[in-house]
Design brief:
D-Maltodextrin-Binding Protein, domain 2, 16 helices
């Protein structure tokens, strides 16, 4: 794993170059700490092809890079919405069991969510990450995040993505997380405005925890399932960061891994994707990241103790109350981004 975060603003300035000394290098656009480095090392050992990871810390940042025809990206991790959107725009390569044989190990209910343009990668929920040494009672409601206790003022980390930033307020309002109408978004804005004085940062918590100026002051954050393990690793606090799914329900997400149509190394990229999706790699990756896999064949290789861990594999009653993301209208995205940008005025 590369230790340095590569800002996407830099990435947009010039194509990503191959690592010096490597005959071939594949560029993978991905969240930080989102693939087991040992898997990539095995791939390089077997193939002689290096993998260069380019990190993003928001879906908006990723989409900007992916939309750049000169980005030189070979593979990318996108949400299920992004797989459909960028696939239809011709940016992602169509996938079948013919060009990615390991797809046979994924049920149609998973592969269909990646729209035929990507392979199901990892899945989970969105909830609340919290420091158990600072917060003695585990949060149980989105209200614990949106209307925090007085002692949490300037100890909350939110997220400036136009999708995820609205999940907590919209679920609390009993609305769809995919709401497009201005009236509903206005109601969400009022909840976000009320919360703003308690918010220390609107940067993704995995990024902000590494900021020496504020990392130690973050006690609670909106987060993806699995983030708690990365936070403990980054902060050097084993077991301190924990994760809870609010009782009102949440967002059930699926990340998909895709190959770009413009990849100059497309055949190699497809081979790497197949390698990552194989039962052995998918199981090892899920175990290393402490996250659930969508591969049926990989699931059989994962210990029963892990499969029964509800923090990793959420119980059916939680999933029954979960919502999936759908494509938002252009107007909704613009309104949501304006709302997020305005939050600094209320901090």
């Amino acid at each position: 794993m590369r230790k340095t975060f590569i800002a996407v603003s830099v990435a947009l300035g010039a194509p990503f170059a191959a690592t010096p000394g490597q005959a071939e290098t594949l560029n993978l656009l991905i969240w930080e700490s989102y693939i087991d480095q040992k898997i990539l090392d095995r791939w390089t050992q077997n193939s002689g092809v290096a993998v260069h990871q380019i990190y993003y810390d928001s879906g908006d940042a990723r989409d900007e890079v992916l939309s750049d025809p000169n980005s030189n990206i070979d593979l990318v991790v996108v949400g299920e919405n992004g797989a459909d959107l960028f696939g239809k725009r011709g940016i992602l390569e169509p996938l079948t069991e013919k060009n990615v044989p390991s797809l046979k190990d994924y049920k149609p209910e998973w592969t269909s969510r990646c729209a035929g343009y990507a392979m199901p990668y990892l899945w989970g929920t969105m909830g609340i990450a919290y420091r158990s040494d600072k917060i003695s009672t585990a949060p149980t409601s989105w209200n614990d995040l949106m209307s925090p206790a007085p002692g949490l003022k300037k100890h909350i980390a939110m997220y400036d993505d136009h999708n995820e930033a609205f999940i907590a307020p919209l679920v609390l309002l009993g609305k769809s997380i995919n709401a497009n109408d201005n009236e509903t978004l206005k109601q969400a804005f009022e909840l976000m405005k009320k919360q703003a004085p308690f918010v220390l940062t609107y940067d993704y918590v995995i990024t902000s925890i590494q900021n020496p100026d504020i990392g130690k002051d973050i006690y609670m954050a909106i987060a993806y399932s699995g983030d708690q393990h990365v936070l403990n690793d980054k902060a050097g606090t084993p077991g301190v960061w924990r994760y809870a799914v609010p009782k009102e329900g949440t967002f059930s997400w699926l990340d998909c891994m895709a190959v770009t149509t413009a990849s100059p190394r497309k055949q190699l990229a497809l081979q790497l994707l197949d390698f990552i999706g194989s039962p052995e790699s998918a199981a090892a990756n899920a175990e290393a990241l402490t996250m659930p896999t969508a591969s049926e064949a990989a699931l059989k290789l994962i210990p029963a103790e892990t499969r029964s861990n509800t923090e990793i594999y959420p119980p059916a009653e939680i999933l029954a109350k979960s919502q999936y993301q759908k494509e938002l209208s252009v107007q909704s995205i613009q309104t949501r981004r304006r709302i997020i940008s305005s939050m600094a005025n209320f901090q």
